[in-house]
């Protein structure tokens, strides 16, 4: 037995044009970031602009995971195993948006509109 | 017999034992599982940021500050109003270091030791520059503006701590410190890991081992850090 036996690892092969795919992904990420910055100055802060930013962010994440992290070339089962649990995050966001709306309506707006004795104990004392 | 076994490789024997059903090594699979759990941690931090911020829209006394008026500095350009410019530079640095990392992985597949070393070195430089930028950003945030804010006892408070800040609600500074700090901590550990792997590449450890899989593993971690920054950038600075 030689001291350094060469190990053989299971892995999925990269495509032969990996280098050009890497650079293509880099230009896509760069372009989307520049679009982000452009929209930040071009549009007024509205909910629509926020959604555009979030969608661009998800698209950028897709390119990073699929090309840079090699997920596109792995087995589908692995990809789903990692991506599907992220659905729970959407669930969490939904819950928290509802809760935040409640806090906003019933704690902040109420205390501004009709000052009550409650306000004395409010966090405004900071 | 041997023939029929190889023919069914892609379907039934996939889960028949003796090989990884994912065609991926144990270490890489575990790195993916770790990144998934880390993704949950960052998600909950960003979701709590969203929660706190969204619930402040009706608070007229201490409204949520616009990032425009907080993060508008650039090194050596004192006093100019340059929103988003510095953080865009940081984003470009991190994206580029991600590219050099994936090029190192690609060179590793070809067993090109010199190229792996070169790209790993560039990645370390990128990560270190990002950390330097973040340190500057933090010091700007903590020092605060010259005007500051008049507080209850009549004195003027500049900058931000965990319990007070001149920009708006206390939670604004707290979440900034926690989210960017947690991300910066990840970048820092990534740079340390990259340095360890870089030294091992130079020592020829992976050449002896016959593969550069460790470069792929730290690569996965490094891209994840870049991925998280995409969302920190989106939620903290753009929205």
Helical amount of chain B: 55-70%
Q: Enumerate the strands of the largest sheet of chain B in spatial order, edge to edge or round the barrel.
A: 1-2
What is the tally of beta strands of chain A? Answer: 0
Q: Mind telling me the C-alpha Rg of chain B?
A: 23 Å
Q: What percent of the residues of chain A sit in helical stretches (DSSP H or I)?
A: 55-70%
Query: What number is the mean pLDDT of chain B?
Result: 90
Report the CATH architecture of chain B.
Up-down Bundle
Given the structure, what is the number of helices of chain B? 8
Q: If interface size is counted as residues with C-beta under 8 Å from the partner's C-beta, which chains form the largest one?
A: A-B, 63 and 64 residues
The CATH C-level class name of chain B: Mainly Alpha
Distance between the termini of chain A: 72 Å
Q: Gyration radius of chain A, to the nearest Å?
A: 24 Å
Oligomer: heterodimer
Work out the count of structural domains of chain B.
1
Which class of secondary structure composition applies to the elements of chain A?
A: mainly alpha
The beta-strand count of chain B equals 2
Count of folded domains of chain A:
2
Corresponding CATH superfamily of chain B? Cytochrome c oxidase, subunit III, four-helix bundle
Residue-averaged pLDDT of chain A, rounded?
83
- Portion in beta strands of chain A: under 5%
The CATH topology of chain B:
Four Helix Bundle (Hemerythrin (Met), subunit A)
Describe the structure.
The complex is a heterodimer of chains A (126) and B (239). Chain A is flat. Chain A has helices spanning 18-42, 47-68, 76-83, 87-113. Chain A has 4 helices and no strands. In chain A, helix 1 packs antiparallel against helix 2. The model of chain A is unreliable at 115-126 (pLDDT under 50). Chain A has 2 domains: 1-74; 77-126, no CATH class. With 126 residues, chain A is mostly helical. By secondary structure, chain B is mostly helical. Chain B has a single domain (27-238), classed as Four Helix Bundle (Hemerythrin (Met), subunit A) (Up-down Bundle), CATH 1.20.120.80. Chain B is built from 8 helices and 2 strands. Chain B has helices at residues 2-7, 26-54, 67-70, 85-109, 113-143, 170-203, 205-209, 213-238, and strands at residues 149-150, 156-157. In chain B, a hairpin with a 5-residue loop joins strand 1 (149-150) and strand 2. The longest helix of chain B has 34 residues, at 170-203. The model of chain B is unreliable at 1-8 (pLDDT under 50). The interface between A and B is large, with 63 and 64 residues.
């Amino acid at each position: 037995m030689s001291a350094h036996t060469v190990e053989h690892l299971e892995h999925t092969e990269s495509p032969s044009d990996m280098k050009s795919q890497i650079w293509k992904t880099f230009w896509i990420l760069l372009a989307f970031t520049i679009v982000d910055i452009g929209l930040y100055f071009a549009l007024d802060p509205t909910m629509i602009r926020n959604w555009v930013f979030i969608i661009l962010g998800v698209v950028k994440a897709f390119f990073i995971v699929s090309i840079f992290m090699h997920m596109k070339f792995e087995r589908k089962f692995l990809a789903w195993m990692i991506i599907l649990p992220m659905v729970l995050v959407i669930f969490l966001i939904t819950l928290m948006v509802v809760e935040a709306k409640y806090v906003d309506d019933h704690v902040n707006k109420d205390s501004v509109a009709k000052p009550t004795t409650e306000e004395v104990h409010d966090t405004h004392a900071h | 017999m041997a023939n029929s076994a190889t023919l069914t490789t892609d379907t039934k024997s996939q889960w028949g034992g003796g090989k990884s059903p994912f065609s991926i090594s144990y270490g890489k699979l575990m790195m993916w599982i770790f990144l998934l759990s880390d993704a949950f941690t960052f998600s909950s931090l960003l979701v709590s940021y969203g929660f706190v911020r969204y619930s402040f829209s009706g608070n007229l006394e201490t409204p949520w500050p616009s990032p425009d008026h907080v993060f508008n500095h650039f090194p050596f350009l004192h006093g100019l109003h340059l929103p988003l410019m510095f953080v865009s530079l940081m984003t470009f640095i991190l994206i580029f270091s991600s590219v050099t990392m994936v090029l190192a992985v690609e060179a590793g597949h070809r067993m090109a030791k010199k190229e792996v070393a070169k790209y790993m070195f560039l990645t370390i430089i990128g990560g270190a520059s990002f950390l330097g930028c973040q340190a500057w950003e933090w010091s700007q945030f903590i020092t605060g503006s010259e005007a500051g804010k008049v507080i209850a006892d009549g004195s003027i408070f500049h900058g931000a701590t965990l319990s007070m800040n001149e920009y708006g609600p206390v939670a604004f500074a707290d979440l900034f410190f926690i989210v960017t700090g947690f991300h910066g901590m990840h970048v820092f550990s990534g740079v340390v890991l990259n340095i360890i792997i870089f030294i091992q590449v130079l020592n020829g450890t992976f050449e002896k081992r016959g593969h550069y899989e460790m470069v792929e593993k730290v690569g996965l971690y490094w891209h994840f850090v870049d991925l998280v920054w995409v969302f920190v950038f989106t939620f903290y600075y753009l929205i």
